[in-house]
Design a protein that fits this description.
heterodimer; A: 345 residues; alpha/beta; Rossmann fold; Alpha-Beta Plaits; 2 domains; 6-stranded mixed β-sheet; 13 helices; elongated; B: 216 residues; MetI-like fold; 9 helices; binds adenosine-5'-diphosphate; binds magnesium ion; NIL_domain (chain A)
Amino acid sequence: MNPILDIQHVTHSFGQHTALQDISFSVKQGEVVGLIGRSGAGKSTLLRCLCALERPQQGHILLDGVDLTTQPERQLVRIRRRIGLVFQHFNLLTSRTVAGNIALPLQIAGCPRREQAGRIAELLELVGLKGFEKKYPSQLSGGQKQRVGIARALAANPTLLLCDEATSALDPESTNSILNLLADINRKLGLTIVLITHEMEVVRRFAQRILVLDHGRLVEDGTLLDFLRDGQNNRTLQTLLADIRPSLPAFLGETLVSTPPQGHHRAIIRIVLSGNGASEPLFSALYEKFGVQTALLQGGVTTISERLSGDMILSFEGDRTEQALDHLKTAAQNMEILGYVPSHP
Amino acid sequence: MSPLILKLILHSAWQTLEMVVASTALSVILGLPLALFMIATGPQGLYRLPFAARLMGMVVDAVRAVPFIILLVLLIPVTRFIAGTSLGTEAAIVPLSIAGIPYFARIAEMALREVDSGLVDAVRAMGGTRMTIIRSVLIAEALPGLVTGVTVTLITMVGASAMAGVIGAGGLGDLAIRYGYQRFNTTVMFGVVVVLIIMVSLMQVIGNSLARWLKH
Ligand SMILES: Nc1ncnc2c1ncn2[C@@H]1O[C@H](COP(=O)(O)OP(=O)(O)O)[C@@H](O)[C@H]1O
Ligand SMILES: [Mg+2]
């Protein structure tokens, strides 16, 4: 299948400053892609190129096979009607009601006035704001404003939904509900979504694929599980991952040694499990087979890309610890021995 | 206060209102497009023409730099050309409007500049044409500020129209000078001041509540 979006060697600069450098990737129909990177990495600039607000100086951007970089402005105006954009600060018109805001893309697309009210009610139902037609944006909470922003972005049936830090101005609870809404929309409508954020937590749950942008370059392209499995990541990615990964408590880290000490000791390991591995009765199996006692120090089982995945730090104690570790190596996606601590029975 | 004086004051108040309303209307009708032109051709604008923007800014500032009393005299030939006469209430509307157009244009420009550029981006990203952006974003979002600008212009015109007595325009200011200052009739002077205060206060109150109502 042809990709819905194909970005080829895009380079863009502002004066002396190169904001994007030789970016290439493609997005398949129905995919949810998380575009992550530190502030100033060029995420918004890339997004503005994708929705034809900015014309990159070099490279090509193909949307459904049409090259945005070579279209005249008159054509771009039409092409933009097929792309939905959701903003960090909502960007709702304060002079219009909720219904008026959602109606604007419909009016622009030339939707007959009779059909607008029905479509608006349908969209408000979808985003969970039934009956909010006559309210003004100033009467809404941040989360509600963003729901209106999403309804507006979906109004003209876009083929692609782009979100620029759509949850960065929201509290954790609203962030959660907005992310659930976006996941829901992707499932129900099969809509392709590119989601920009600087928070790994935002892409953790439902981005099927993650792109990491660093100083205008695309430095990683893969799934979160890939990144956890490889371990050997780019520095930017590591710092971003640190936000969502369990870390060894400082007091334990201080007593850690790299070789097994004499006498009673515990091995401290970091382990990544996915799919079945994450839901199997792992700890009891280790005890039955090797007599190894396992304790969970940090982390646990979470959802990554709508699948169960385990990312945890464990402590092992027992005479057959080495065999248990060998056994784990085959079951786990990634296993790393962090070190050993003496134990005092 | 004699009925004659009252009649005189009411007649003059009517002349003042005529000048103020007509010249403010013309200032808005011609000043708003001017403000949109300066915004649209400016550095962040929809039709970038930096040279045209700067030239227009200079013309606007030049007219605003001339004190109204001097403008009034300078414009006598222009007034005669447009109004057919250089004397009277209707004739005074010409110089008042010429002073009001750049005045309102600058105020409107400020109000339009206040509009969040994110909103322009949002409507541009939806595929809105430049006309849609000007109508639905720039003007619609700046409306409360524009209404406040109209209020300020109205009140400024009340002040400026007092000087229009110089070209025989009549009005409250003219009445106060002729009766109050030249003939020491303090009753007329006092009456004029009271009517002016009521007129200006009403404009301000109505303008403020309209702007507040538009602000949602
Ligand atoms: N319109 C602009 N003019 C000049 N520099 C810009 C402009 N937009 C972005 N930049 C610069 O480009 C870089 C990338 O910006 P941006 O894409 O907004 O980053 P991000 O969204 O990842 O935080 C930054 O260094 C920023 O200062
Ligand atoms: Mg950004």
